[in-house]
Specification:
Length: 407
């Protein structure tokens, strides 16, 4: 049995009450139905260890509140035939918003995390104009997909959110800083709104998916785009830090005399291993070939998606640029494996489309740089799975499915 030490905060004591135990049991049942649906009451009792009478009472309440529905009847050789339970997809809807430079995706999801509709709008650098447009689109989507209620809005952002004020502190790739999205969106839509850093949202999506196994409590996501973000779930809890800035490993310097990063440091992991880094490597390679170092044409950048396409077509310079990026990506991941020893580390981004080339380089760097020999599984995620967007749905769902405050 693994020991678990957790200090009690005597300055913030919450005494457990009988209501707390009932709430915990309720959420256990809800999670078991969500994860194993369709499942019978007997199946819930068996997996939870609760008395069948307790499970029957809780499921009766969940059915009356329309969280859970009864479905098909099972067939057994003898005894009472079980009735299977599943989440009610029509009880309520959730709005997910994935804000990225250039384009924002807005989706409607059911309570069982199935997307019912998606659309995109431009991401404007004018934050006030963008918030007004986003509010209108959300309202239009709710009208087009009527539900008995909507639980809320989850938003993923390429920036950091202050834990106390819920304001966006900075999002340099969007051109926004010190911005309140929550208040105007809640006023415009009438829905509670949760904001989260994109890497944290991806970490939540990976944890909620359950695809990494029951015992995974330490999970790290590395989001790779024009920047690098890191989401941390340690001991089953999302780590934000005291102000929401935890996880800024992208701005740890790997090369003291490396390229200048937008943060002011040189040789940051982000400036060495992001999509933009690969674009720079390819541009430098092309300019050297043409003898144009320092000229305007030397700064021309080929989009990262085109570099991946050129790699597939056998372009040697594109392959070298991708390999250089992968080597630096592996160096940073080795730092995370050594320092955090997570069960799973998931890489998110377009770079995973070339994981057959990138993955072996990353693994080589980890083996050569990490002396702990941590048994961390480093896995790519499927870009088509939309982890950022799925994380926004988890942001809203966790209010009902996570352990209650004070548990």
């Amino acid at each position: 049995m693994r020991s678990r030490l957790q200090k009690i905060d005597l300055n913030n004591i919450r005494v457990a009450r009988s209501e707390t135990a009932r709430d915990i049991n309720r959420r256990i049942v809800l999670n078991l139905v969500r994860k194993h649906q369709p499942i019978s009451r007997a199946g819930v009792a068996r997996r939870s260890g609760m008395q069948r009478s307790t499970v029957s009472a809780i499921t009766g309440q969940l059915i009356s509140e329309r969280w859970v529905m009864e479905g098909a009847v099972g067939h057994l050789p003898r005894g009472r035939k079980p009735t299977f339970l599943h989440l009610n997809p029509d009880r309520a809807g959730i709005i997910g918003v994935d804000i990225q430079p250039g384009r924002t995706t807005v989706a409607v999801s059911s309570m069982d995390s199935q997307f019912l509709a998606q659309e995109s709008i431009p991401t404007s650098t004018d934050s006030a104009e963008f918030i007004a447009r986003l509010s209108r689109r959300i309202t239009d989507l709710m009208r087009a997909h009527p539900k008995s209620s909507y639980e809320g809005i989850g938003i993923s952002l390429p920036g950091r959110i202050d834990v106390a004020s819920h304001r966006l502190i900075f999002a340099p790739n969007l051109g926004w800083a010190d911005l309140d999205l929550k208040t105007p969106l809640e006023k415009g839509t009438g829905l509670p709104t949760e904001l989260e850093n994109a890497a944290n949202a991806c970490a939540l999506a990976e944890l909620w998916s359950g695809r990494h196994g029951e015992g995974v409590r330490n999970l790290v996501t590395v989001t790779v785009s024009d920047e690098i973000g890191v989401g941390l779930i340690l001991n089953g809890q999302l780590v934000r830090g005291s102000t929401g800035l935890a996880g800024e490993f992208g701005h740890v310097s790997l090369l003291a005399d490396g390229p200048l990063c937008r943060c002011g440091n040189r040789g940051c992991w982000e400036v060495m291993a992001s999509d933009s880094a690969a674009m720079r490597y390819y541009a430098e390679s092309a300019s050297v070939r043409k003898g144009e170092v320092g000229s305007k044409s030397a700064t021309a950048r080929v989009p990262f998606s085109d570099i991946l396409r050129l790699v597939e077509q056998g372009d040697v310079k594109a392959a070298r640029a991708l390999e250089q990026m992968a080597s630096h990506l592996g160096a940073g991941i080795a730092m995370l494996v050594t320092g955090l020893a997570p069960d799973v580390l998931v890489v998110v981004g377009e770079v995973t489309r070339a994981w057959n080339r990138v993955g072996p380089i990353v693994e080589r760097e980890i083996k050569s740089r990490s002396f702990t020999h941590a048994a961390t599984r480093v896995l790519p995620t499927d870009p088509e799975a939309q982890p950022r967007l799925r994380g926004t749905i988890a942001l809203v769902l966790q209010k009902h499915f996570d352990a209650p405050v004070g548990a």
